[in-house]
Design brief:
This protein is of the alpha+beta class. The protein is built from five helices and five strands. The longest helix is centred in the last third of the chain and has 20 residues. The mean pLDDT is 92.
Length: 135
């Protein structure tokens, strides 16, 4: 069984609930990511903020200068453990149309698995199998 920890990215850009939305827009663009976990100082998962959340806010509330991540983040987040089966994560990403899910260890954020992470993992696995076949 392939586990979340075998595929997850450990370097996760996170934001705090008190972060200003305007700053998060810059950070997402700068890091070329489409969303980020919202965490406490102790790395507890509080929610997620995505491009979609920001666009929805902009659509209905033009005054974002005073808005914080807490004003728009999704609070009910589906998260997985480092030891969870990758197929369960894959199924959730596909069926829920998520781009990423946070991965927890002892209740704290330890990584993230995105669609891109899974594609990269599958690509590396296919290369390794091809090399084994060529030998």
């Amino acid at each position: 069984m392939i586990r979340a920890k075998d595929v997850m990215s450990n370097r996760v850009m996170t934001v705090k609930p008190e972060s200003r939305v305007i700053d998060v827009i810059r950070v997402l663009a700068e890091h070329k990511v489409t969303g980020a976990p919202v965490v406490s100082d102790e790395m507890g998962l509080l929610g997620m903020v995505t491009e979609k959340d920001i666009l929805m806010m902009l659509l209905y509330d033009k005054d974002i200068k005073t808005k914080t991540v807490a004003d728009l983040m999704t609070k009910e987040v589906i998260a997985f453990s480092e030891d969870d089966d990758l197929m369960e994560i894959f199924k959730t990403l596909v069926e829920s149309n998520f781009r990423r899910v946070p991965i927890l260890s002892n209740g704290k954020l330890s990584g993230i698995v995105s669609r891109r992470d899974i594609i990269h993992f599958l690509s590396e696995r296919a290369k390794a199998q091809q090399q084994d076949n060529d030998e």
